[in-house]
Design brief:
Blueprint (H helix, E strand, L loop, with lengths): L8 E8 L2 E13 L2 E6 L1 H4 L10 E7 L8 E7 L1 E2 L2 E2 L2 E5 L2 E10 L30 E6 L13 E7 L12 E6 L9 E5 L12 E11 L14 E6 L2 H5 L10 E2 L8
Antiparallel strand pairs: 1-2, 1-4, 2-3, 3-9, 4-5, 6-7, 8-9, 8-16, 10-11, 10-13, 11-12, 12-15, 13-14, 14-15
Amino acid sequence: MTEPLLLTATQISTFLGSQLLTKASGFFFARDERLYLVTSRHVLIDEPSAHLPDRIEIELHTDEADLTRSTGFSVLLYHDGKSIWHQGQDSGGNIDVAVIELERDALPRSANLRAFAPASLENVLDAVEVGSSLLIVGFPLGFHDTVHHLPVVRQATIASSFGVRFQGQGYFLTDARTHRGTSGSPVVMRTPAAEPSDGELPWKLLGVHSARMDMTTRDLQQDESLGLNCAWYADILMTLTEADAAARPQIARTSRPGDE
């Protein structure tokens, strides 16, 4: 048996047709009877870099006892020219988080995964102190346990006031060593002993790792990278997973370029 936290995350491979484009991270979130894959929006579409995949593939464990057994599960990103994911925006602009509802009946019956739930979210923002210890669970540069198909975990701390949107945006900062491929990872904090928690998954889901933050004026010869990262507040998942999400004005369902 492995720690359930490691089974919340999955590696995402993006494709255009049969061509592999990138690898990234994602995780599972369940609400009522619905199961969702969560990742960064820019994993699914990134206009500035012309990253326009039409399909993703995630890796699923298929045996509760034998972690060496896994399978790929393919998801088409467009249906009738429209994207299948939900994304959102708030007063600060677009949010770099996207969710895709997965059809439970289409998954392998033996799929072995764990999912965060609404109860995993932190509702009291000022209860999380700056400097608090965090974990980022993902696949940096695609690196992972290739035998057991498990992600790796990086240590992090909260680097900005958790109750204050950094620069007015819907994210907070973390201090951690991260790499490409970590986008879409869950950012979690151990549930304090004094608080009730899911016995199997005693972690608070605080955010979704998006990208490294750096200074454009940094002297590449003299100054090291800041080592800071953006993590979008995880409470956006409650909006993106509402049953009527497609009809809500703050939810954008984008068309694939050229289909309109």
